[in-house]
Every structure is written in C-alpha cells, then in structure tokens.
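F.,

This is the one I mentioned.
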C-alpha cells in the first residue's frame, strides 16, 4: 500500500491548512487511501490571487528566453519522473496506466514546444504612412490568471494553460479538481523545481462553491486579468457571465457531444477501432469522447455487429493492467452516468454487455480484469436506434455509453452531427475526399478527424470548440499565446514636429504628385 499524502492549498510554496478535511480513495481500489485533503475556502482563493498578483511583475521582468529555459527544465523534470507521475494519475483517478503515460507525455511535449516560444514572442515592425516615424507591436502578459481545471486530464490540460502563461510572463492561481489534488501538488512541485519562483503559481484546493465565491471576490478586487476554465458547459456559462461583468475575457474549454460519422465507403474495421477508443477509452470520461455514432443505413447493421463484438471482447478492470478502461473517476461520476442509463427507451436496442450499471459479483462482466468489488466500475453499453429527440443524443453523458443513430443522406448526417449544439471534436470515416472536405466545411466542431478517433490531440495543434463546447478560444500551440498575451502598439515619431496620421497624408501626396 502506498503512503497516504497529506495535502492542502499552497500559497507562495507553503502549505496552507484549510477547514474541512476529506479523504480521497483510489477509484479502482477503494481500500487504497490516496490522500487526506484539507480544503481551502473563498478566502484561500483570494489570498492566492493577491500573492500571485504580487509575484507577477518580477516574473514578467525575467527575459522571455530565460523564462523559456525554465519551461525547458520543467519538461526535463517531468520526463525524468514520467512513470511516477503516470502511476499517480492512475492511482488517483483510475485512468489506465498506458493512457496516463500518454497524458504525462503531452505535458512534456507542451514544455518542449513552449520552451522555444520564449525566443519567439515576436512583435512586428509596421510601416508608417508618415515619414520619420516607426510603428511597432509587442506581446505583453495579461497579468494574473485564474486556471480552473477538471480532473479527467489532471496534468495534461493544466499544462495547456500554465506552461504558455508562464512563458508569456503571467502568474497563475490554479484550482484543480478537488478529486485530483495529489497530481496537482506534484506538478506544482515540479514547476518550483524548475526554478520558477514559488509565488508565480499558487495552488488552491477547494470545492466548486468556494471557488465560485473566491473567483467573484478576486475579480471584484481587480486581482485577475484572465480566467481559464475546463469543465462542464453549465459551469462555463456561469463563469462567462461573471467574467463579462468585469470585462475579463475567459478561455473556456467545455463539454462535447462528439459525432463520428460512418459513410457507406468506410473501412468498417478501422471505424470500429476508432469508435471503441473514442467511446470507451477513459470510461468515456473525456470531453472528446464519442458522443454519437452516426452510421449510414447501408452499413449500419454490419458496423453495429462488429462494434458490439469489439466492445464485448474488450477487457475492462484494473487500470494497471492492459484494459480498455478502468473505473469511473469517482462515485459522483458513476451516479451521473447511471442517471443517463434511465434514459434508455423501449425502442432502443442495447448491446456491448449482458448487463447495465455497476459491475459487481451479482451483476458481472465476463472477462473482467481484477476484482470489481474493490472499485467503481460500470458496464459498457451501446444504445442503437437513437434519434435527435432523445436525451441520449442531446446531452453529454460522460461515461461508457455510445448512442448510435442512422442516416440516409449526407445532409441528414450533418444535421445529426450539429443538432445537439455542441461543437468540440468530430470524426468521419470515408475513402472519398469529397465527403471528407464537405464534412469539414459543414460540421460545427472546432476539431475534425478523418479516419481517426474523436479523441486525441497533439501539443502544437489548436484545441477547442464552439457552441456549447466553448467560446471560440483555442489552446495548444501558438494559438494559446493569444489567450495569455495582449497586443501593445507603439508609434515613435522622430520628425521633430507633430505629424497627424490620416490628416496630413494629403499634403504628402500633393508633394509627391501622387494620389490614391
């Protein structure tokens, strides 16, 4: 049994005791107590914002290339501890170890990318319409940023915010999911070990209600100039409204109901492989999980037969073994998922498992890896016959369930792909370039895959969604720099006289005998 960690918020690198203490257990082995966590409150959040604000100016004064060196060092520290960090992710939230390794690798990739951006925070030299005058632009840090993240990707997604924010010269108050504080503290310790001053990233461990109260107070006090949030669309709306009252632009990465369209000419085995990983990897607890498979009626039955066989044969269970997925992250998510099972209608056809709901000795799954009684495991289910009127089509279900709908023509497929109002990720399986390009043009999603899954992102490609899935902000790659910097323009007139742009141009034109 691993040691039990005693965790709390960290302000200026020092643990800050909170009020209420909660115990966090390994969702794959509830006998394994991972941590005792002292939860902070709204005051803790405000104190952290004040401390970050105080640290930001000195960090911004460090030359950007040197900040980039620190991020490079952070990447090396993460790489040297990759296996230990991945094991902690698996133990804390139940993500299969192979996926956890991939998540930690994404942090490393993000650091590698942004380390070099410390030497590429370019401005521009812009030609002036006036003589003896130069125009310039500069990227400036936004200031102090609140970062509020979900726990299904407890280290990768925070790195998408924190790493570019740090390169750009910002300070941050990070509120991780309260059910994933151990990997959060480990990440912050890695940041400090890389030479980044402790006050530049403040860690606040608390619940959603106290976070909302603290965020509102920090915004009212002018302590925050940016808010980044990854989580549900419902909470995202509330954060957007709060930020709007204070003229602060949030970066919102919200839920998804990600379509996977299977055309008549699709490679069905490949489509099944993509649907299996998209729909059931991480037990369907990704924002990019497959939300609805939209299958042409001519291949529907064949696809469903192959998909059912793949799901029925997939190993489920102990996340440290070779499994498709492990437990639900917590009992809260298991309860939410089981509520969606109640929306399966008599006209729907279920497959993929002989049972529904919690996997137990009385409700077993054949071939389960390990002991289901030890953790929070749910049966996978495919629900066929779903239409646009069904709740299972309209809502993010966040669990191991894949609704399947049929279509007759391409326009119907597009209507089903967009009709729920989400717009995060999407996929189409086809051999026809015309279908692929038409899908890209008409789908509302911010991310499109052709013959690949709805899940999966590379560290240098923009990540984000539209509609219920976000406010158009993009993370990862150079696009994130627009979220963590502000443009400043400079006009420098060395003519020795007042030159009035737009107004004096006519005189210059006349002197040159030239008109536009």
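My design for it:
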């Amino acid at each position: 049994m691993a040691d039990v960690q005693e965790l709390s918020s960290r302000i200026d690198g020092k643990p800050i005791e909170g009020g209420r203490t909660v115990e966090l257990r390994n969702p794959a082995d509830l006998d394994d107590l991972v941590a005792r966590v002292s939860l902070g409150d709204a005051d803790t959040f405000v104190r952290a914002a004040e401390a970050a604000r105080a640290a930001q100016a000195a960090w911004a004064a460090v030359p950007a290339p040197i900040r980039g060196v620190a991020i490079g060092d952070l990447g090396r520290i993460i790489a040297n501890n990759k296996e230990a960090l991945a094991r902690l992710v698996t133990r804390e939230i139940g993500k299969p170890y192979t996926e956890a390794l991939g998540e930690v690798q994404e942090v490393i990739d993000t650091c590698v990318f942004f380390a070099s951006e410390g030497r590429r925070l370019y401005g521009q030299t812009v030609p002036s319409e006036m003589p003896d005058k130069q125009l310039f632009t500069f990227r400036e840090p936004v200031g102090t940023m609140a970062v509020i993240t979900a726990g299904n990707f407890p280290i990768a997604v925070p790195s998408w915010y924190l790493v570019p924010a740090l390169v750009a010269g910002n300070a941050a108050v990070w509120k991780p999911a309260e059910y994933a504080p151990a990997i959060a503290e480990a990440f912050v310790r890695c940041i400090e070990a890389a030479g980044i001053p402790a006050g530049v990233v403040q860690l606040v461990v608390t619940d959603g209600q106290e976070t909302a109260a603290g965020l509102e107070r920090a915004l009212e006090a002018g302590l925050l100039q940016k808010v980044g949030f990854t989580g549900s669309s419902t909470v995202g709306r509330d954060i957007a409204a709060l930020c709007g009252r204070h003229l602060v632009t949030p970066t919102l990465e919200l839920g998804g109901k990600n379509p996977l369209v299977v055309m008549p000419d699709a490679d069905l085995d490949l489509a099944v492989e993509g649907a299996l990983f998209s729909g059931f990897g991480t037990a369907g607890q990704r924002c990019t999980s497959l939300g609805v498979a939209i299958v042409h009626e001519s291949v529907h039955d064949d696809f469903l037969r192959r998909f059912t066989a793949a799901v029925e044969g997939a190993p489920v269970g102990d996340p440290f073994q070779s499994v498709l997925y492990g437990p639900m992250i917590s009992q809260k998510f298991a309860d939410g998922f089981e509520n969606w099972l109640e929306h399966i209608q008599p006209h729907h056809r279920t497959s993929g498992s002989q049972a529904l709901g919690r996997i137990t000795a009385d409700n077993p799954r054949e071939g389960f890896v390990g002991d289901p009684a030890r953790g929070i495991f749910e049966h996978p289910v495919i629900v066929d016959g779903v239409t646009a009127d069904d709740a299972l089509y309209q809502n993010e279900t966040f669990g191991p369930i894949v609704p399947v709908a049929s279509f007759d023509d391409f326009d119907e497929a597009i209507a089903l792909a967009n009709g729920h109002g989400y717009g995060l990720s999407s996929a189409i399986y086809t051999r026809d370039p015309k279908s692929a390009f038409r899908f890209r043009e008409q789908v509302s999603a911010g991310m499109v895959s052709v013959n690949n899954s709805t899940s999966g992102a590379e560290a240098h490609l923009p990540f984000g969604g539209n509609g219920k899935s976000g406010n158009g902000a993009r993370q990862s790659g150079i696009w994130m720099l627009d979220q963590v910097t502000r443009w400043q323009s400079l006009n420098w007139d060395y003519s020795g006289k007042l030159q009035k742009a737009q107004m004096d141009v006519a005189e210059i034109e006349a002197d040159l005998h030239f008109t536009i």
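The domain at 42-254+470-488 is CATH 3.40.605.10 (Aldehyde Dehydrogenase; Chain A, domain 1).

Talk soon.
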